Amino acid sequence: MITSILFLLLTGSIFLYSTSSKTMLNNLTSSIKLSNFIGVSLLIIALYIATIYLGTFSGFLFWLISFIVFLSLVIIIYPLKIINYKYLIVLVLFSLSFEIISSF
Q1: pLDDT-based confidence at 85, cuts 50/70/90?
Q2: Does this model's pTM top 0.85?
């Protein structure tokens, strides 16, 4: 569950970062309103899941700290073109498998 929350936060942060006027990205900025809506929706869904799974205050605190960390990472790493969809898929699958194995 933590993996899905973090994946939603990272994806929402990337969507919101790509719609910034100072970025030079062309693939997600074709529809700025749609990208903003998707990014904010993913962040709200992640907040809802975090508060349901972890409790109200601890879920909000986890979401807020994770959101700040991911925004910082996206601002620093995304312009270097290190993050792409293949890397994200491998990272999420590895994290999800580790979370499932550690729960048993």
Answers
A1: confident
A2: no
The residue ranges of DSSP E strands in the chain, in sequence order, are none
Contact 50, 59 (CB under 8 A): yes
Angstrom distance (rounded) from CA 79 to CA 23? 8
Query: Which backbone phi and psi does 22 adopt, to 5 degrees?
Result: -90, -5
Which residue type is seen at 47?
Answer: L
Would you mind telling me the total number of residues written for the chain in this entry?
Answer: 104
For residue 94, give the nearest of 13, 12, 32, 6 by alpha carbon: 6
**pLDDT of 40 strictly over 60:** yes
Residue 91 carries which side chain, given as an amino acid letter? L
- With beta carbons less than 8 A apart as the criterion, state whether 40 and 12 touch: yes
Q: Which amino acid is at 70?
A: F
Give the pLDDT confidence score for residue 61 in this predicted structure.
Answer: 97
* pLDDT bracket for residue 84 (50, 70, 90): confident
Q: Is 27 helix (H, G, I), strand (E, B) or coil?
A: coil
